[in-house]
Design goal:
It is a single chain. 69% of the residues lie in helices and 0% in strands. It is an all-alpha fold. Helix 3 (49-76) crosses helix 8, helix 5 crosses helix 13 and helix 6 (102-123) runs antiparallel to helix 12 (275-292). It starts with a helix and ends in a 10-residue tail after the last helix. This is Zinc transporter 5. Keywords: Membrane, Transmembrane, Transmembrane helix. Its main location: membrane.
Length: 324
């Protein structure tokens, strides 16, 4: 459902021409209100400043992530924007280079090279029918035809993916319990909304005409699905998947599930899509993620699996001690 909301958002913004920052801000406002009403972070045990301050800073990182992700969605399309979210696995390479043992560094560097190769092939259009080197089956007309992308276009969604992983690292480090995680996430969403407010107003007033502001239709499916599935429900779904199913975000299994949903959406929306090229790029990316997050797999049981790329990096963050 979250991937469906991404495709509906892409088609809405590409056809309506609304401001990406203003649209995301308008989605964060009701989402932050819903989180605050549900979690009530002002009730219960008072939160210390050692948890509130990093959470507010994390909200700024989230705001920057949403800006880069929205820009990357419009410039690169939903397929690349979704696959670029797995670029956060490079944190595992960084942690190994700074703090890891020599035996694990080369495996992580190999995983990084595989991930870069995948994104390079995606930028060259291997996942699109018009630019894929493989034979194209099917002659049905396309709704969207994509051109090859450059380094600047690809750097935007990849940077958003790294920021998203860094945001999850900080959230895990600050929140020790599940209930505390929900309360702090409500503060984080509200903080991101406050950070986006001046940028959204600036972009709306200076970057949009009066006619486009009038045409800004909030009660659309793209708007409602982004709030419901793209911001609210995805947070609870990720927590359930990680805590009960032991399915973390930056993992090959998660990529496999997302890849199946992406294939379905690409076919339904009749996008410029090459199945063979997408499968090859996904396999390369999955191999890169597997190698980049391979630290400590042999020491963990199936019930103790965590996202190694984020966990190894978060353990090195210098923060004050937190209450148990």
């Amino acid at each position: 459902m979250r991937i469906w909301s991404v495709y509906s958002l892409y088609h809405y913004l590409s056809h309506q021409g609304d401001s990406v920052v203003a649209f995301i801000f308008s989605c964060l406002v009701p989402a932050s209100i819903i989180f605050l009403v549900l979690q009530k972070p002002w009730k219960g045990r008072p939160l210390p400043n050692s948890q509130i301050i990093p959470t507010v800073i994390n909200g700024g990182i989230m705001a920057l992530y949403f800006i880069l992700w929205g820009k990357g969605l419009l410039s690169c399309g939903p397929l690349i924007a979704l696959l670029a979210e797995y670029a956060g696995a490079v944190l595992g390479v960084l942690s190994a280079a700074l703090y890891g043992r020599q035996v694990h560094i080369w495996k992580k560097v190999g995983g990084l090279i595989a991930m870069l190769a995948c994104y390079y092939l995606l930028s060259k259009g291997w996942a699109t029918r018009t630019n894929s080197p493989f034979y194209s089956f099917g002659k049905e007309p396309l709704m969207q035809a994509k051109q090859s992308l450059g380094f600047k276009e690809m750097a935007v969604p990849i940077s958003a993916g790294i920021l998203s992983a860094l945001r999850r690292v900080i959230a895990r480090r600050v929140s020790l319990k599940n209930q505390l995680k929900r309360r702090l996430h409500a503060i984080c969403i509200a903080s991101a909304t406050c950070f986006l407010f001046p940028l959204a107003m600036w972009d709306t007033i200076l970057g949009s005409t009066s006619d486009s502001i009038v045409k800004f239709q909030l009660p659309s499916w793209a708007y409602l699905s982004t709030i419901s599935f793209g911001i609210i429900f995805v947070f609870y779904a990720d927590n359930i998947a990680e805590e009960r199913l032991h399915l973390v975000f930056s993992s090959p299994r998660h990529l496999m599930i997302s890849g199946g949903s992406i294939i379905l959406m690409e076919i339904l929306y009749q996008m410029d899509f090459s199945l063979i090229g997408f499968v090859i790029c996904s396999l390369i990316l999955g191999f890169g993620i597997f190698e980049a997050t391979s630290l400590g797999r042999s020491r963990r049981g199936p019930l103790e699996s965590q996202d190694a790329s984020e966990e190894a990096f978060q353990n090195q963050l210098q923060m004050s001690s937190l209450p148990s």
